Amino acid sequence: MKQLITALLLVGLVHSLAVAQKYERPKVLTPSTYRGDVVPQPDPHSLADAKWFEVFQDEKLRTLIDEAVRYNYDVHEAMAHVDEARANLGITRSEQFPTIGASADLTTQRLSRDGSFTIPAPVKRDRTFGSVLLNLFSFELDIWGRLRKQTAAARAELAATEEARKAVLTTVVSDVATTYFNLRELDFELGIAKRTLESRRESLRIIQLRQERGVSNLLDLRQAEELVYGATEVIPALEQAIEQQENFLSYLVGKNPQSIVRGLELTGQRMPPSVPAGIPSDLIERRPDIRSAEQQLIAANARIGVAKAAFFPRISLTGFLGFESSQLTSLFTNPRSVWGLMPQLAQPIFTGGRLKSNVRFTQAQKEEFLVNYQRTIENAFREVSDSLVANRKVKEVRTEREKLVETLQDRVRLAYLRYNGGVANLLEALDADRELFNAERSLAQARRDELLSVVQLYKALGGGWQ
Question: What is the pLDDT of residues 287-335, one digit of tens each?
């Protein structure tokens, strides 16, 4: 028996080295600079290194983000997943240790006086006996590292869920900021629409007076009415969108639909003066979704070792230690002590290809997680590049639209002066007014897009979960 155990231990040492699946991070080609970054030399500092309350300066927005981090349902669900993975790690890790339990039994028996055998006179008919045992149930000797690999896989899955929780936080912060800026842009558009409506109503009043006095014709009156109705129909649509944005924002912060307290105006929002992207190779360490994908890959790698260890015998020990006696009064005396130890060895011989298929299954899972890891990295670089390009280009769009609005404002002023002076017809003034209204709304959208480009860049770089 000693020789057999020694031989098994030696074989186990050799095969455990073969079973072990040492993880090595896959090599990924990272660009030297982000495409779309105007900085020739990457800045080691990144926008993602800043806390979300440092990036967003609107106090009301900060309050909303803080409420979302506390009460958002996706965040709570992610935290529950972390707790679930932590508990699963505890369950898996417990298999490496012996399970110790205690048992006790008590039996009281009365023998028949006229049964199949005769009871001697000194012997009592009533007997009480019992046992107290400390049981050691099936403690497996982890020679091949199967249990250690299972624990390593569970620990990696816990790390993956923790990183996934951080990714959820990043998404929630981004969603709250995006929805808030959309809401402020709609507020700004509503203000433009109401201001334009008042201006057009005043122009309509003047044209009505001119038409009554015979200075203007009925066509001018109908054209002026058309502009009034055009501005009027925009207002209900904007009010609908505003309430829907408020409802969605309430949902993000874990509340029933309600009005949202506003902070700074759209034009008063302050953003960081610069948005450095940082060094591209740091993105792999910073983005939680990439780290989560890598931990899933580590877990899959460990499960291959578990599958390979199933080919080798399992050695377990089962034992007990305690006292057993026919008289309770002498239960704990030395002659009544009992113990037992039973080594067990189980070696699979024929499984119909199940063990080999399980190894191939875990290897295929690892390849799947490897593809997911590589795809997550490539997608991260794409998102950063898209955000950098958007941040730069949307500024150019906003600048040009500001110039367009200034030009149209002057054109409207001059057109109405010419009309009131009888030099031009009303159509020129109405066309200029219509184009100005559309341009002002487009400018508001460009200002919102400029804010959203910073939000998207912040998310793409992995910020917001700190």
Answer: 999 999 999 999 999 999 999 999 999 888 888 776 676 665 566 666 6
Here the tokens at position 5 are 């155990």
d(CA 199, CA 206): 11
461/466 Cα distance (integer angstroms): 13
The secondary structure element, H or E, covering residue 110 is: strand 99-110
Residue position matching structure tokens 């508990």? 87
- Contact between 67 and 254 under an 8 Å Cβ cutoff? The reply is yes
The token pair that represents 313 in the structure block: 């015998």
pLDDT digits (tens, 9 = 90+) for 118-165: 555 556 666 676 677 667 667 788 888 888 999 999 999 999 999 999
3-state helix, strand, coil in the chain (%, to 5): 65, 10, 25
99-110/337-346 β-pairing: unpaired
Alpha helices in 310-353 (DSSP H): none
Question: Helix count (H) and strand count (E) of the chain?
Answer: 10, 4
Calpha distance 94→460 (Å, rounded): 39
How far apart CA 64 and CA 52 sit, in angstroms, is 12
Residue 110 · residue 298 · CB < 8 Å: no
Report whether 462 contacts 286 (CB < 8 A): yes
Distance in angstroms (rounded) separating the CA atoms of residues 300 and 376: 17
pTM recorded for the entire structure: 0.84
Paired with 135 in beta bridges are: 101, 320
Exposed/middle/buried for residue 259 (C-beta within 10 Å: 0-12, 13-18, 19+):
exposed
Q: How is the beta sheet containing 314-325 ordered, strand by strand?
A: 99-110, 126-141, 314-325, 337-346
Which domains are assigned to the chain? 2-96+143-190+231-313+353-460 (1.20.1600.10), 98-141+314-347 (2.20.200.10)
Q: Which two tokens mark 358?
A: 């399980």
